[in-house]
Design goal:
By secondary structure, this protein is α+β, with helices and mostly antiparallel strands. It has two domains: about 90 residues, no CATH class; about 80 residues, no CATH class. The chain contains three helices and nine strands; from the N terminus they run E-E-E-H-H-H-E-E-E-E-E-E. A three-stranded antiparallel sheet has the order 2-1-3, with no helix packed on it. Strand 1 and strand 2 form a beta hairpin. It binds zinc ion. The site of zinc ion has 9 residues, from helix 3.
């Protein structure tokens, strides 16, 4: 039976969020090789979906996708008229200039600082990274986190500011 679903594209990146009118079994999730990474519960009518999921009247200013405000930061999304994903990147625009944030090959990274915590608590499982920033700093860390590939709607606001260097030695 077809119902209305709100779906978010894989990795919030190349596919804006949208409303589908589909049979649940026809919606392919990312783990099934599809493009959908999250979806709402199904609704019988579009109006019910809009009310229950708190969808705004206007599409997202950046990607043109549906703006759903059923989140803890819903009011922010409503005020900026941005979808959850675009707001995520909008907030990163300022953040990218912090000394522990890096844009490398179009992806956003954050250094949590070298740590002795168990590997499973560290970014990339505690793997050793060496980064050279374009302003001449060298950062070596075992606690690097990736916020994923930058959205295509924001990539031109995030020029690369660093590169990876080969790591010669690994810490035990
Ligand atoms: Zn958007």
């Amino acid at each position: 039976m077809k119902r209305y679903y709100f779906v978010v594209g894989y990795n919030h990146n190349d596919k804006p969020s949208e409303i589908l009118f589909e049979d649940r079994s026809n919606v392919k999730m990312s783990y099934q090789g599809g493009e959908v990474c999250s979806m709402s519960r199904g609704y019988d009518t579009l109006d019910e979906l809009k009310v229950k999921e708190k969808i705004t009247d206007n599409p997202c200013c950046s990607c043109g996708g549906i703006v759903i405000t059923n989140y803890t930061n819903g009011q922010v999304l409503r005020d900026k008229n941005l979808c959850f994903s675009c707001n995520f990147w909008d907030e990163k625009i300022e953040e990218q200039h912090k000394p522990n944030k890096f844009v490398i090959n179009g992806a956003f990274y954050s250094d949590g600082g070298r740590s002795n915590k168990p590997n499973h608590c560290l970014g990339f499982g505690g793997a050793e990274f060496k980064i050279e920033t374009f302003d001449g700093r060298i950062i070596e860390t075992n606690n690097l986190w990736c916020a994923s590939k930058i959205s295509k709607y924001y990539i031109d606001k995030f020029p690369d500011n660093a590169k990876f260097c080969k790591v010669e030695k690994f810490l035990k």
